[in-house]
Amino acid sequence: MESMLHITTLHYLVLGAALFLLGVIGVLTRRNVVIVLMSIELILNAVNLNLVAFSRMWGGLHGQVFAIFVITDAAAEAAVGLGILIAFFRNKETVNIDEVNLLKW
Amino acid sequence: MAPVATPFFFYLLSGIMLIGGILVITRKNPVHSALALIVTLLAQASIYLMLYAPFVAGVQIILYAGGIMVLFLFVIMLVSIDRSMRERQFNSQWIPGIIAATALGGLFMAVFTKGNDIFPEHALPMVENDNTQQIAMKLYGQYMFAFEIASLLLLVAIIGAVVMAKKRI
């Protein structure tokens, strides 16, 4: 009970791990490419939560600066990913990830 | 002295975040998923505030909930979702996917239970009144090169998105 009421770094890490797992399940099981991209956003957010929690733990700001870089990466990834999705939808008239098999032999 | 209501808000916000995350990966309609993801991102911004990171919380709200999610909603509007909503929602590899995710969760739990001692019990004191200023000093001082690389990355992403989405260049 004592460990439940005193919030430590480990609580934030467990929350980040749970969010990461939800994202992994979404990426691995869903068929809709839009929802797969949203699951990738969930994963990046879990990483950000860990970075900020460690930044709090050590009393420095390096984790927060790194979290900002990760958010930049997420923006770039979302833009390019959604551009690819639009190009794919124009060619195949679907957003189903099972039909993305051009490189499969 | 630690704030009294911290555990209450931590569990409330974690509950909102996890419920939002579950809704993101289970909804049939991508618009509902996007709205659930916005709720998750806002709850996470509140958790950043609890961790003495007000600047990251602001960036999270403006950039994630305001920028990236609008991009997502625009793309959902551009692609037709009627057909995908009538189809099966989970792909043929979902059983190996669940097994892999469970194994990863077991690994996380093993690390967190075995490695409990390596995390200090009490967090170090943090200055909270000049957070944004300190981040700016780090960003334009020590992390100058990484900052420039990030701007280059954004330029490449802009060009890439235009090249991908445009019909004829």
Folded structure, characterized:
- The complex is a heterodimer of chains A (105) and B (169).
- Chain A is mainly α and 105 residues long.
- Chain A has 4 helices and no strands.
- Chain A has a single domain (2-93), classed as Helix Hairpins (Orthogonal Bundle), CATH 1.10.287.
- Chain A starts with a helix and ends in a 13-residue tail after the last helix.
- Chain B has helices at residues 6-26, 30-50, 54-78, 82-86, 94-114, 131-140, 144-165.
- Chain B has 169 residues and is an all-alpha fold.
- Helices cover 74% and strands 0% of the residues of chain B.
- The longest helix of chain B has 25 residues, at 54-78.
- At the A-B interface, α2, α3 and α4 of A face α1, α2, α3, α5 and α6 of B.
* First-to-last CA distance of chain B: 61 Å
Please name the CATH architecture of chain A. Answer: Orthogonal Bundle
Number of domains of chain B: 2
What would you say the CATH architecture of the largest domain in chain B is? Up-down Bundle
At the third CATH level, what is the topology name of the largest domain in chain B?
Four Helix Bundle (Hemerythrin (Met), subunit A)
Mean pLDDT of chain B: 87
Write the H/E string of chain A, N to C: HHHH
Beta fraction of chain A = under 5%
Number of continuous helical runs of chain A: 4
Low-confidence stretches of chain A: none
Biggest interface, CB < 8 A: A-B, 75 and 87 residues
Share of helical residues of chain A: over 70%
Strand elements of chain A, count = 0
Largest sheet of chain B: none
